Amino acid sequence: MPDRFTMVTDEPRVDPEVIAQWQEELQRNLGRMKNFTEMVANPKEPSVGPTPRQEIYRKNKSRLYRYESRRKYRTPLLFVPNLGISRPYIFDLLPGGSFIEHMTREGFDFYLLDWGVFGPEDNRLTLEDCVTRILPRMARKVLEISGARELSVLGYCMGGPLSACFIATHPEVPVKNFVNMAGPIDFSKVGLFGVWLDPRYFDADKFVDTLGQIPADMVKAGFKLLRPTMDLTTGLNLWWNLWNDSYVEGFQALNKWANEYVAFPGEFFRQWVKEFYQQNRMIRGELRLGGKPVRLGEIRCPVFVVGAKEDYIAPAACVKALIDAVGSTDKGYVELPGGHISLIAGRGASVHCWPKVSSWLAPRS
Amino acid sequence: MADNSSTQALFDLWKKQIEEGTQAWARLVGQIGQSGQAQPPDPLQFWRPFMDQGMAAWSKLLTQGPPTPELLTQWKQFLDQWIAAWQKVLEQAMGTEAFAQVLGKYLDQWLSLQAPIKKVAEESTEATLQALGVPSRTQVVGIARQVVDLEDRIEGLEDRLGALMARMDDLFKSLADHEAAAARRAADRVAQ
């Protein structure tokens, strides 16, 4: 006869491992609720740009910063990012997740060119001004401050083609090495932007003549359209990792950056769209800046190109084209997993990308 | 723990759904591209196979044993795949000439509308500010431009001054070398 105090049921017993898993899931959900409440009720401005730096030169809106480092290599490194679109603190986002921190820790004398946030008074600034007036001056300042005889140039995104134009048209500037990270070169392979900016459908002149400056909201709309599911993925990943405090910290910093767009000066936009996207003049050797032809074959210093497999802004094939165009004998190309931003920010970048860049530059610096 | 084979089967099913959905959408986009007319696509063509099979798969999974948090992981993976499939589909649609044409037309119309509005707004703001005796935006921008130009001219002067200084340094150096050589020659002559 069964004991009346013993529960006997036909239901199968739940595996203790399953119970432990649910308990863990419950903990995560509590963490999610805690962090969600914190984000909504007490939103904190993420602190970005942790690496100490010093402004060493300014020209109109542009600034040149030198970052503190234990200098191990003689050749200084000038970092040229994109102009407009976004702010450059993405390169120094958080401690332990900063490209600049990595490079300075490796012993590079690191200089960042911040193009700045442009206003309507800058609408006459052209791409030609950037290449023939701002970049040479910045390079000279780097040489002056560092006391070096040569410098390396690292271009990221739009900074890649701008640097390439600068190096090709200024043989008198002693550039020892050139690194192009995700910088579009062959615009016939530039993907969706290339299709949308087709001269048959996109009138760059009308845009600039009407608006003067290309407003930040319009730049944002263009990039959002390029990746319409991005916000959904971001939200989903945030919810999934909301229990993880360090993820939330990283998310807040990245999200701040991702929502801070920068306007384009009108004339710069006109030249950028027409001569690069629509006419693809640089790779075809038809571009002239400051009265000089831009011949990529004139670039003879060692060149390293980094492309990203899932880059939808500057597809790998479009970036890789620099390798065949330059006249250098010492040149290398590496294609890494991830997208445009994952080369420069995030855990993947610190593992896959940054060490490759620093280890290529180190023996040449 | 969930049964591995059933999980695999589930993923295979999702993969099939995504592929079918993508193909359905690609066919739709292809039709638009061929006809040249942007007819409104029927989203049900994409959704029907996706939803029917998805619901069947989920009801099957939920009836198997006690649910574990792995179910949530699978759900997340499903959503990731679903979003990736949508992205692929949208990319295909947005990469067509038809889309570029529609986008271009939209932007053109927007600009045509924007130009007179902007002009009227600027003129009225300018008039109001002038009436109030406050500097207008155009005037502030004009002053800022002048400052930028002035900065450029100062830099130009700096450059020229730098070049002059460098030339003078070279001159002084060669003069000093010349004097030193002359002094040496004189000293040699005295010694002789």
Concise description?
The complex is a heterodimer of chains A (365) and B (192). With 365 residues, chain A is an alpha/beta fold.
Describe this structure in words.
- The complex is a heterodimer of chains A (365) and B (192).
- With 365 residues, chain A is α/β, with parallel strands linked by helices.
- Helices cover 43% and strands 15% of the residues of chain A.
- Chain A has helices at 16-41, 99-105, 127-146, 159-169, 192-196, 204-211, 216-226, 230-241, 245-258, 266-278, 281-284, 316-325, 347-361; strands at 53-59, 62-67, 77-80, 85-86, 110-114, 151-156, 175-181, 261-262, 288-289, 292-293, 303-308, 331-336.
- In chain A, helix 3 packs across helix 4 (159-169).
- The termini of chain A are far apart.
- By secondary structure, chain B is mainly alpha-helical.
- Chain B has two domains: 4-99; 135-192.
- Chain B is built from five helices and no strands.
- Chain B has helices at 4-35, 43-62, 70-94, 97-132, 137-191.
- At the A-B interface, helix 1, helix 5, helix 6 and helix 8 of A face helix 3, helix 4 and helix 5 of B.
